[in-house]
Amino acid sequence: MINKTLRELADMCGGTLTGTDSDTELVKVAGVVTDTRKLTEGSLFVPLSGEKFDGHRFVEEAFASGIAASVWRKDIAVPSGLQERPLIIVDDPLAALQRLAAAYVRERAVRVIGVTGSNGKTTTKDMIYSVLSTTYNVHKTQGNYNNHIGLPLTILEMDERTEIAVLEMGMSGRGEIELLSRIARPEVAVITNIGEAHLLQLGSREEIARAKLEIVSGLREDGVLIYNGDEPLLDRCLAETDFGRSAPPARVRFGLSETNDHYPTGMMFHTSRTIFTTNGASEQSYTIPLMGQHNVMNALAAIAVARHFGVTDESIRSGLGQLDMTGMRTEVIQAASGLTIVNDAYNSSPTAVRAAIDMFAPMKGYRSKTVVLGDMLELGQEEEELHRSIGRYLDAGKTDYVYTYGPLSLRIAEGALENMPEGRVFSFTDKEELIGALLKQLSPRDIVLVKASRGMRLEEVVHTLRDYPL
User: For 90-116, how does the pLDDT look when each residue is reduced to its tens digit (9 = 90+)?
Assistant: First the structure.
């Protein structure tokens, strides 16, 4: 983590020190926190504010817990109890946090990889981290720390030995990816795909593509853009603007099509892993402990990044084979009863659900196959038709049973009834009723896929199926 004197921190974030003397200015500060529940002794506290909270109310409590100093917004009066405390006065604590992160990543000369996309960015980030860690000291985004607060905190957590940082960049609207990219100044920018997530906020896939391409705004002049070449919107939107650059970035494309720089020449799917080969002068074979064609696409992006950094094929194979994945992303669970559960309940969108169904469909050797699908959230005006289209995507060749949960997923059930046999589609708006019906139908020799937006909390279904003695 960042380890600086108070004077250095103030200079890096553009603030003014108060309540200190020359000796105090030289006090070392280790780490930056914004949450009083995560305070560490000797750290810098940054009080953030929102519509319903103001972190300045907790600064005295933070000092009592042993912090070294705090940031303070200049237009808020300093209470008498803090006037002798070391404070860094700034115009805006959030902007100061972002300036501090930007200064730190440049000072350390860390090589940065920014990863964004509608689906698969966390998996791709984890893959990139795993393959690069075979050769370099690598730092990565933890959990969902991928926004305007989480990304700066991730940067400031970097060990001083870090050589490469893999930073996930999320968004909900225009301008957010540009901000993150300009803070991090990536050497490599990765766009996994363009899906339907954030249609509610942005209105169209074209606008989503433009928002994701904002990652180019902070890309170093000598940087490279690695992106899904099967998505025509990216090439089309790339041609619309120069992103304030003197020249277009170097590009590397991955995807299923042979027109890409990196593409698979063969794929074999198993319940707990996928084996695939790639193009090249000498065809290379890789194994990932994940299922599905979409995860092969994520792996191709990681391979492209690894080759940019000179990682050998042997090390890439080793890294991909030893992935440590963030939870609830295509996690295969073997229940005590013998039931096989494919838990993909972290997030959802039409693109992600179709990919999950495509992964699930070829699985064989089970008495029956069941998909449990919940509402896909934040899809905007077309949400009902997008749910109905997922139902139409299902048929008896892909699954034996369909269970849906939530008011929007009633439309999935309607679409599925067009292709599925009678008595194989069930819809619920009560989670306990859904669980009860599943427990009656499933057997130890079955497999079930669970997929929904995080807000539907279908991991509760997964946990019950995992623990229940069928």
Answer: 999 999 999 999 999 999 999 999 999
